[in-house]
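=== RUN LOG ===
request id: a7f3
mode: sequence -> structure
chains: 1
length: 210
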Amino acid sequence: MNEGLDVTRRNVLASGGAAAALAAVPGAEGRPVMAKAGAPPTMPVSLTVNGKRRDLTLDTRTTLLDALREHLHLTGTKKGCDHGQCGACTVIVNGERINSCLSLAVMHQGDKVTTIEGLGTPDKLHPMQAAFVKHDGYQCGYCTPGQICSAVAVLDEIKAGIPSHVQADLLDRPGLTTIEMRERMSGNICRCGAYSNIAEAMAEVAGAKA
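=== RESULT ===
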């Protein structure tokens, strides 16, 4: 070992901490100076959100949920489990419902995204929103945006003839029955337990009996 070279665990940790602090020292414009190698990769992405084109440059790891909430400030879409298990983040993409927490924003270049804000407004509610209000299809309301987006898409799925697990024959055309709607909505969790009221709201919009 070279004379005068004091290599100890304490010195190594101290020098590492100093290097990390130096890397984040604000530059001339008051922004942190980050090493090029450590900068996250970004990509431009264009989405049509609620009928309006939105152009973003995002970290490639950004989920569609975070792009909507943190970058576009559309906070109606909720972050629940962040693991695709509760359905609170459900949005409609190109006419189909998805869990936005499980999908990267950059995967949706050019896609049409509809969030709860795009379905209706307080002055002009979507029929499903109005039905949820009428039938008390919510309590705390946290899951409600995802429930409503999913409910709207579910009725479209049934009309399109997309089969479900409760059909005896997958080649048969699905009906607008309570069991069909409940099965298709099973991925949307309501911790308050408003399931019966949600089914009634959907049935009214579908023109069926709950």
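=== NOTES ===
The CA atoms of residues 161 and 173 lie 5 Å apart.
The first helix runs from residue 9 to 23.
=== END ===
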